[in-house]
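Subject: two folds for Thursday's group meeting

Dear M.,

Sorry for the delay on this. The cluster queue was jammed most of the week, so I only got both jobs back this morning. I'm pasting them in the order they finished. Each block is the input sequence followed by the predicted structure tokens. Could you check whether the formatting survives your parser before we put anything on slides? The first protein is the one we discussed after the seminar.
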Amino acid sequence: MRRGDIEGLRQLERDMRRLGQVPQKVATKAARAGAAIARKAAKANAPVDTGQLKKSLIMKAERKVKPGKKVFGVMPSPHMNDVLVKISKRGKRSYYPASQEYGWTTNGHYTPGYRYLRHAIENNDDKIEKAVIETAGKEIDKILRG
């Protein structure tokens, strides 16, 4: 070893090059793990009338903007709109999941929403963060070992 060399520097440089090529699937798996926690909490907190709202909750991936980034949204499935869109006797359309989240007005009286989606994130942010970090760490370790 020459003077000024740091022990393990070559190994560190090799590992850093490998990490620079972390596949998109690492970000996807980590984001999916966090979103799964939010989806489970949203299903647990969703109001139940017929059960269709709980049944409709899905995780949908946003389109990729940058490499190494992945975002999932927890939302009602668009495929269930025929069940979730309500039409009043006067023909006025309302979107049931939105009214349950944000509230509604009946005869001038406002009824606040349940905020089941918002609370799914706010009440579980530590669990979500931990799941994302653990999953990403495991996947990166697999890459470095392989």
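Second protein, same layout:
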Amino acid sequence: MAGTHDFVVPDEASAQASAEELAAHGFPRVFARPHPDGGWVVMALDEGPYPVDTVGHRQVEAVSRDAAVIVRAHGGRPDGGSRFDVSRIAEFRTSTAPIEVIGAKSRPPVPEVIVVSAPPLAPLALTPDVSTPGTTELPGLDDVPWADLEHAHGPADDVPDLLRELAGGTQEWDEVLGELFGDDLLHQGDCHEATAPALPFLTELIVADVVPAPQRRALYLWLLIAGGRRNDNLVGFAELARGEGEPLQPGAWTEEVFRTVGDQVPVLLDRWDAEPQGIRFVLAILAAQHPGHGLRAADGIAALAAELDGTQQGAYLRLALELVHGRDERALALATEIVSWSDRLEPRWLEAPGVPDGIKAAHVLTEGALSAIE
């Protein structure tokens, strides 16, 4: 495969300087044009070729990070890029861009990339299950002014009905939960005004013990995903904030959502001994995102990590244990090891500028653990 590395720089002068240095670095062609939203876009063509596997993707990412160092010196920041089959290179060799610099080399230096084999995935049991069939009340549900709150599709006045369907054990339970969170409250990963107020009702559903273990795990997972948006935003927005000279801060409502999830953690940790292994794993990851509360689960997390030693889930639990103890430097080292074998995780997360080590490690933990749940 081949690809492009795209950057945004402040003005034409910085675009010209960046293009010249990128070409000198080894990119065969570099183009630049005005950005519709201001500044200039610089696109470095990388003809490769790279193998279409984990090693190849990691090599492309490493080349991109080296190129970003060049562009940052001119006030720029990374802005994505593309990957495509080498048969399409001719489509990218010509452009009407006002700036075009042709390099003397055929490709930039490719840093050495070490990819190790991933540990095996362990099956995580969802038995024994403590739940008994039934319905549950959701006290306080009608006290929330849902019609005055917004979710992804407007007023959140449909949220209480969806929650009541879940509490009533609807036959379309998975579909209703997906509509509530995947479509309304966390649509495309964005938090909304109504997201945080809905989260305590997931805890109410969990502690009522009328929801069977697979569905109960789904509730824990949505709490984990919701709380994880804060760290995802901080890691993802780090380059953007740096490029624009703005303070690093997450998107709208994500801090409130993060705090609200944290408020649920003590109640949920009281369930540690009662929950099956497959739910304790999720609960451990949730505890690690909120170490102030999660430290009380340290012994349980250590025991579960020992049970799952040598597996992917065991590696995530060892990382969770470092986070609940506040050992962020060690946590980042373990996160780096995990990124070396998980092709679903991005090495650039480990280098997010201005982001504390603990947040980078916690982001790797959440995203990786979600992929380790079968």
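Two things I noticed about the second structure. The two ends are 30 Å apart (CA to CA). The beta strands are 2-9, 29-34, 40-46, 77-84, 99-102, 150-151, 154-155.

Cheers,
T.
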